Amino acid sequence: MSEGIKKFITERKTFITYLLISVFVTVIDVILSRICEIWFEEVIANTIGVVVGFIIQYILCSHKVYRSKTIKTLVIFFVTWLLALGLADLIVYVVREKIFSGNDGMITFLVAKGASIVIPFFITYFVRKALIPVGSDKNKEEQVTSRE
């Protein structure tokens, strides 16, 4: 059984690393978003949490997941982040204002925040996976070395 688990983890190492980084970033995002709701309205507070999360996630993912720190990687990360941010804010607005009619309770917060995390997570992961070649920094170094 342990061989099966090892194989499962090995085959999905990139996704698992991305997931763990995302969970870490999410904890920071959720705490920061909830604290910011003291001073800002829900969507702005959510945006602050997501912006801080983006910065942390880009730094960690560019090193640990994609092993690529090129301008192209940054642009793809930023554009997919903007799309995810728009989607997350839309989800927060719809859940908080339309579904729960402006309720500010913890359950409403958690439902809105949870949906705004899970849905964009999968969308951005698969879009980034398709657009960012893993190890492109290494491939770039190999191309330069082979030319010399």
Write structural notes for this entry.
The protein has 148 residues and is mainly α. The termini are far apart. It has helices spanning 2-11, 13-36, 42-64, 71-99, 106-131, 136-147. Helix 2 (13-36) packs antiparallel against helix 3 (42-64), helix 2 packs antiparallel against helix 5 (106-131) and helix 3 (42-64) packs antiparallel against helix 4.
Poorly predicted sequence stretches spanning 5 or more consecutive residues: 141-148
β-strand amount: under 5%
Order of helices and strands: HHHHHH
Shape: globular
How many alpha or pi helices?
6
- In total, how many beta strands? 0
What is the helix content?
A: over 70%
Oligomer: single chain
